[in-house]
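Batch job 17 of 40 flagged for manual review because the log was empty.
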Amino acid sequence: MRVAGGLLDAQTTRFERVDPLLPPAASPPEGHVLTAAMGNGDRVAGVLSYSSFPPGTATTLWSALELYELHPLLGATGGAGMDVLLREWRHALARRQAGQDSACLLTWPSRDAEAAKPLLAHGFVPLTNLAVRVGGVPTPPPGLSIRLATAADLDVVLALEMAELAYSALVGAAIVRPDAERVKREALARHVDQGDPIWLAERDGVVAGVAHCRLMDVTARGLTATRLRPGRWGYVNCVSVAEPFRGTGVARELMAVALHELYRRGATGTFLYYNPPNPLASVFWARQGYRPLWTSWELRPATALR
């Protein structure tokens, strides 16, 4: 897409001012181009992409089956530009036949508060934050026995991750599909086989919690570079504590060990996703040093866009 008027450069400058941890604004993917005019004659643009996910795939556990995603190019126009572009998006969607298992998605820097007002006004909800933690390697406290999971632990890890999925479905974007347990089991088996670090906390020989992590090398040309600056990042995929041990500090100790080990293995920062409406995660992760970088705004079904 040819970006008229230097919208991409202006957007990068705005991102730098909003949050110094943001990478440069990325060119949008291929898709349907939207443009909209503002009252002063300035124009904004965006690309609308469409994805459909077959039942039984891992993506369907956190996404609607049909996804309409907008990639805005607002330049320096802020909330006013977001508003006119969302109006244009509504008109474009009116010509589509979106089903009930569909969603509109837009991901935007969390600290750009000017964009929040029009997103809320058009019916979007901030369902997911990509949060980052940089610096400050924690020292693991003594207490729990913490070890890496093996293939023999697959059932207990699966039970913990299914509990996390069920709770996240109450307060975020997750969906407990009929085949969720099978999909989760297959994904977990792959992660264990490829050696991703999955730490288990035990108390008196009983598994109390899990921290499922991995290491990722983000390059300037990779897809993840649209969200993170290049470097080696630790990704915290799932943290779940068994019900009898909740509120006893298990997650805090488990994460201290996981973070220490991720940094020891070369991570310069770590990231994760959590749901802002989650009354547990939104408090816990801030106490662990994480803060939002990107927010995914969503509405379901896609026809609810107003």
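Reviewer: the log was empty due to a logging misconfiguration, but the result itself is present. The mean pLDDT is 94. Unflagging and moving on to job 18.
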